[in-house]
Design a protein that fits this description.
This protein has 154 residues and is mainly alpha-helical. 64% of the residues lie in helices and 0% in strands. The chain has six helices and no strands. Helix 1 runs antiparallel to helix 2 and helix 2 packs across helix 3.
Length: 154
Amino acid sequence: MFNSDPSKKPVSTKLPKAVIMMVEKNNLVMAIKTLAADENISMEAAKDRIDAYETELKIKQQQKLNTIASKQGIPNEALSFDREQIEDDSDRLIKNRVKTTPKEQSFKSLQRGVDSQLNDLGYKKRLVPSWAKRLLVIAVIMAGLFWILWRVFG
């Protein structure tokens, strides 16, 4: 069942279309189970085949990115799939990030920020909010009904 003998035929990276779609959608567990069931192989062998396919796919994507980057004059070091960044790159990225508000700031600072954005867009704040208008209309209608009923039955 498990192919651990290196003298045997190497693991094939050709996968069924359904499994390829699962791998591209990053549904790896389901892809491994489906491949193992479809081809009657062990889960470990299916995982090895899917890992090989993913590696091959990443290499192809990196090659495509490198060719595009070389055509546009972007250095190859700027493009990588590695999650770790060199300290110089991280310093440069920190400078380019959008500034965020500290966590200690309260709801008031958020409200001020929203108000300033609305002012920049030219939004005029209403004197009386719409919810207050609705309450006023409801109160007037209730007072009118009360007065009418008091005059009729009073």
